[in-house]
Each structure stands twice: as C-alpha cells, then as structure tokens.
Amino acid sequence: MEKSLKNKKGFTLTELIVVIAIIGILAAVLIPSITSYIRNAKESAAIQDASAMYQELIAEVNVTDDIYETLTTNKYYIVETDGGYYVLLENGSCNVSPLKDNSVVDAASAATEFNIEGVSTFFVLRKVNEAYRVLELSKENTTWTESQTPVYPTQTQTE
Question: With left for phi above 0 and alpha for psi between -120 and 50, is residue 10 left, alpha or beta?
Fold first, then answer.
C-alpha cells in the first residue's frame, strides 16, 4: 500500500479536463464583461477630455474679444479627442454617447451620425499642435461641409 501511494504523482486526465472546462466557462463569461468595462471607460474619458477642451477654449478666449460671444452662444460642438472619439457637446455638456466607429472618419460623418433635427451648423473643436482650432461645419442640402477658414483663432489673432 505504501509503495503504490509513492508512485502516484500529478493529476489524472479527468481532473485536468474539468479544470480546463471551468477556466473556459469563466473566460466565456468574463471577457465580454471586461471588454464592455474597457469601452465604457474609454467613452467616459473621451467625454471628460472633450468637456475639458471646451472649458479650456472658453477660458483661453478673452471676454472682450468679438469671437467670445460667437463661441459661447453656439449650442453645438463636435469635439475630436486624442483617442479618436467624436463627442457632441450641447451647451458645453455631453448628452449622447461618443462616436468611434469605422464609418466615422471625420467631423462631417460624425455630424451625420449624430443627426440632430433642425441643426444646420456645428462648431468643430480640435487641438492642433497644442493650440485650439474651431471650424464651422454647415449643412448644405444633405451634405456637411467643413469651412477652411477657422472661426477661432481669427486671422487677426494669428498675425
């Protein structure tokens, strides 16, 4: 009896298969949950980044500048974040999920995806070389067109 116990080492094939099956079931349940948590965290970070960019832009513009009223009274901004998300800000806050999709490649396609009734103009806010740039995105018939001349900074501010 003592000799047979010393020769028995390791796990049986059945025990190994049971452990592998349990690990497989846990992975099947946990991976989708973890993926969803990661996506939600990235979307939340994009919203926070977009809000911070908007607040920094408004803080950067002098209240006495002519452009200040234009920037603060526009209701809708599409903000391009570093993570590749497009965030819609309405009056400085986000009420819809940010977009990051293969079909959303620029602000015009983001405006089409957001599809807000009655809105024919957005401001597009992006950071270029550590400086903010605001462009106007307007709807002509069914096509969104981005202006080439920035709303901010104005030509006089860049000279």
Answer: left
